[in-house]
Design brief:
Layout (H helix, E strand, L loop, with lengths): L1 E5 L20 H14 L3 E3 L20 H10 L5 E7 L5 H14 L4 E6 L4 H5 L9 H22 L1 E5 L4 E6 L10 E3 L4 H10 L2 E4 L3 H17 L5 E11 L2 H13 L3 H11 L8 H7 L17 E5 H15 L3 E6 L2 H24 L1
Parallel strand pairs: 1-2, 1-11, 2-3, 3-4, 4-7, 7-8, 8-9, 9-10, 9-11
Antiparallel strand pairs: 5-6
Helix pairs in contact: 1-12, 2-3, 3-5, 6-7, 9-10, 11-12
The structure holds flavin mononucleotide.
Length: 359
């Protein structure tokens, strides 16, 4: 099972609650999490980008460290873990992004990857005058396909000519080339997002409870197989583990009881502007009253896997077998302690079961 950590480089991480740890992200904190993840043997970290927070009593995501710059710093201070930077297609020109990622690739000696985001949240980009047009929600994957082909050409050949409605590049240069294919992941869950991911990405991120997971993982696997490609699917989850089930349950119940309703409503307002059907925005709207196992909005719609260490390991293995996913992207309540406990108590159980099953 491929395992990574979704770094909480936006304020307060991924929990919209007055009783979760309150923090403004710092490099020091992100480095501590990444070094812990590397030490316990996780495969990768991924950081996010948000240009406008969701406010509320907790100031949810109001501060956010830039993802690519953060990866550059982490690259210099780590040795083996892969570093995925989020590239926002509306915020950075593809030739500039290609150079920034090539730089992280050099610093990390070949450990950089890209999480490509099309931008679902209009206020974030409209505040900078960067929301392109009224039909952008519907055309965002079209633009992103061109964006990726430009970056890939520059990483491979160091030059590209590309003329379209979206981009005008005339013998554009970008050296040094990367000398390796930079892996690209995408998190589109809408039908358009799935089609796009199957065609262009190496991994797809999905989120949903155990049954939904199977339903949403399959289309990417089928569509990519039809195109002769292999695209892995990683489930995004929050881990709440403790010595006993009761202790873990008390933690999530307290977080839900203290939900930051104003911040949740602000996420809802943005999600309801999204006209691209059946994607993440719909999942957010459904998450207002969903059980935590299915993706409640207290946890930004991420399903919670909770319980004793043994129970969490068992549930993770079950979900993988049941849905055909290739791994998971993990978030925690307290990230440094959470990653350490995961490495100490849960990961050995998962690896032992994998070894047993392989034999
Ligand atoms: C693991 C993961 C990471 C994401 N990171 C970001 C991010 O950093 N910034 C952002 O604007 N959107 C981010 N998103 C949102 C997606 O990129 C995508 O825009 C969203 O899922 C909507 O696409 P859809 O309508 O096709 O589902 C992320 C989603 C997931 C699941």
């Amino acid at each position: 099972m491929k395992l990574g950590v979704f770094l909480p480089n936006g304020q307060n991480g991924y929990i919209l609650s007055k009783s979760s740890p309150q923090f403004v992200p710092t490099f020091e904190h992100m480095l501590a999490i990444t070094q812990e993840a590397e030490a316990v043997g996780l495969d990768f970290i991924l950081s996010m980008i948000k240009f406008r927070g969701f406010h509320g009593a907790t100031g949810f995501w109001d501060s956010c460290l830039d993802s690519i710059n953060l990866s550059a710093g982490l690259a210099a201070a780590t040795k083996t873990i892969d570093l995925y930077s989020t590239v926002p297609v509306l915020g950075i020109h593809p030739a500039v992004a290609a150079r920034m990622i090539a730089t992280v690739n050099d610093i990390s000696k070949g450990r950089s990857g890209v999480n490509i985001v099309t931008g679902w949240n209009k206020p974030e980009y409209a505040q900078m005058g960067l929301w392109p047009s009224a039909d952008y929600h519907d055309r965002r994957y079209e633009l992103t396909a061109e964006y990726i082909s430009i970056m890939r050409a520059l990483w491979r050949d160091g030059r590209v000519t590309h003329k379209s409605d979206f981009y005008q590049l005339d013998d554009c240069e970008c050296f040094p080339t990367t000398g390796r294919d930079i892996p690209i992941v995408c998190a589109g869950q809408s039908p358009k997002g799935v089609k796009f991911t199957a065609q262009y990405a190496e991994y797809n991120f999905v989120f949903g409870g155990p049954d939904k997971l199977r339903r949403i993982a399959q289309p990417v696997l089928e569509e990519s197989a039809r195109l002769g490609r292999k695209v892995g699917t990683l489930a995004l989850v929050t881990i709440i583990a403790a010595p006993t089930d009761a202790e873990a349950e008390a933690i999530w119940r307290d977080l839900v009881a203290n939900v930051d309703q104003e911040a949740v409503m602000n996420v809802m307002r943005s999600a309801s502007m999204d006209t691209n059907p059946d994607g993440t925005s719909k999942h957010f709207l459904e998450g207002l009253n969903a059980p935590v196992e299915e993706g409640n909005m207290t946890f930004m719609g991420f399903p919670v896997i909770w319980g004793s260490y043994e129970s969490v390991a068992r549930q993770m293995l079950y979900q993988q077998r049941h849905s055909g996913i290739s791994g998971m992207l993990l978030t925690f309540v307290d990230f440094v302690a959470g990653v350490r406990a995961f490495g100490e108590h849960i990961l050995p159980l998962i690896r032992a079961e994998e070894t047993r099953a392989a034999a």
